[in-house]
Structure prediction request, 503 residues.
Amino acid sequence: MKSDNTNIKVTTVRDGEQDIEAKVGANLLEVLRENNVSIAANCGGRGTCGKCVVHIDGEERLACQTEVTEGMQLKVSSGEESFVILEDYASGEKLADSIDNYDNLCIGVDIGTTTVVLQLIDAKSGKIASTRSFLNAQRQYGEDVISRIQCANEGDLDALTDAIRSNLLAAIKSLCSDVGVEPTQLKYICIAGNTTMMFLLLHYECQSLGVFPFEPEFKHKDQYTFFETFGVDTCDCPVYLVPWVSAYVGGDITAGYLDCRGNGSETAFLIDMGTNGEMMLWTKDKILCTSTAAGPAFEGGGITYGTGSIPGAISKIDYTGDSFTFETIAGEPPVGICGSGVLDASACLLRGEFVDETGRMEDPYFDEGVVIAKKANGKPILFTQKDVRELQLAKSAIRAGVEILLSEAGLTISQLDAVYLAGGFGQKLRIESAVEVGLLPEEMAQKVRSIGNSSLGGAVRICRDLKMLEDAKELAEKAEEIQLSAHPDFQNFFMDYMAFADL
Ligand code: FES
Prediction:
């Protein structure tokens, strides 16, 4: 009698060939996920992103649209970035030798929708002993919070929680081993991240985050046990989660505020350019915040040749009048374009008149795209009409949010002490490109400071001084959220700023 199960052969760049047992007829993407095979699946398996490509019998197929067949053999080539240590944080400050007191070790964490970073800190001296970063394994369930919420609501909550918990536990262990201690010796852990990331970590149902009025069903607690946070009780150190303001203004922006406030600006604007663009504007008397669905373009997502900030990602582009020049992360041969490159590419296309002020590409580029670079194998890396549209959507969503927060606060740009730009762009963002495409108003340019991962920065500050957790709580209570979708001016601003023309 024929069994329902079969052995399939899966070849990946990282692990080579492996045999996996699977049910005939099972969804291939699900089987790969269950067996921890790293594969990109940006749309979460809906068949729209085209990223989950596998090679079967010399043919390209989408894993999410393929059923397992008897003795299937396949090659997976996407998703390798999941195990590339990201440049920005990989070097870390190896100060293990200068740690003063091993009784005061704690860990600060930022769980980003795309990237996760952890730092081991000596709370007493404030020194950072070691750093780890990795791409969030939940990306296999979609690249934005909306797809993750949908997956969680459709039965994948356990898998999403397991994905982040197991990665964090491994990273915590590995950080501790850098200084020769056990995780049981940690004093506490402080975690920042958007509200969806926190819910998935805590294994909370996410329904309330995905439906109107978007009020998180679970209230923030002052302190969590290790077991509540990670599902195991191997340690008994407390875990602090930086409080969230609402469903879409998370602890990452609260932490970001703490990080920026440390720079002493009294009236300032913080813009975190993630997939969910979160913003906070504060004066002596009030704090306003909002979030806007910017989409993943600023992280290289949804872009034809887009990629995360991995070695080989084109992070800087110039146009000399007749050709493009570029720089890649770690100087590796180009593999794709990351967020800062997307912004540069758009500014260059505008400057070179490849696109007009409405964002339409001139012929023949409208159909063919513009060749920005060539891969090592000679294949072109193109920037297409669709990519320009993605960038326009992202930049107008952010810009509309900026304008509305300023007007709600009754402030002009000249009254701001500083504008902090946080997010995956890190230090690579070029302010000129941001201004050129209209992402930011020109008058802001002089005030902008790129601060990289301010969510991690805030979590680390709390680790150094736990009293700051009280400030974070107070802030989360005091912050007034402006719902952009319900704001009477949002649609107009959004439409106006889609164009590249100066208003
Ligand atoms: S097309 Fe398969 S995950 Fe997006």
The mean pLDDT is 88. The domain at 5-78 is CATH 3.10.20.30 (Ubiquitin-like (UB roll)).
